[in-house]
Design a protein that fits this description.
InterPro entries: Anthracycline_SecMetBiosynth (IPR052164), Glyas_Bleomycin-R_OHBP_Dase (IPR029068), Glyas_Fos-R_dOase_dom (IPR004360), VOC_core (IPR037523). It contains two helices and eight strands. It is of the alpha/beta class and about 120 residues long. The model has no long low-confidence stretch (mean pLDDT about 95).
Length: about 120
């Protein structure tokens, strides 16, 4: 059965300290996150472009949200993986896997954010 929509609706990255996590992601990826509160749930949304590839997502702090370096892995697009890894370390994160080739599909690396989440990086060059 064919579907005519993207299977991933959005993603949520659990955080313990929203301010620290926002500072990390805004610096490392050069974006401004949009804060939102829904009762006890606090979210900070990544910028999104309609009709572009990729899924929207947010940082989220609330009951039941626990950061992890195990399980589902989200890959962020990075125009320069080496620079993104450098910024990760500057902001208190760690590089888990250095930049490596995935052949014709480009390059990947893996980092650990300030909250304890493993995050993948992907670039074409």
């Amino acid at each position: 059965m064919a579907v005519n929509y993207n299977q991933v609706g959005w993603f949520e990255i659990p955080v313990l300290d929203m301010k620290r996590a926002m500072d990390f992601y805004e610096y490392v990826f050069g974006v401004v996150l949009d804060e939102q509160e829904m009762g006890e749930l606090k979210m900070s949304w990544f910028p999104m472009k309609e009709d572009e590839a990729g899924a929207p997502g947010s940082l989220v702090k609330g009951a039941g949200y626990v950061p992890s370096d195990k399980g589902t892995l989200i890959y962020f697009t990075s125009p320069d993986i080496d620079d993104t890894c450098r910024k990760t370390v500057e902001k208190g994160g760690h590089v888990l896997q250095e930049k490596s080739s995935i052949g014709e599909y480009g390059f990947v690396a893996m980092v650990l954010d300030t909250e304890g989440n493993a995050i993948g990086l992907h670039s074409r060059t």
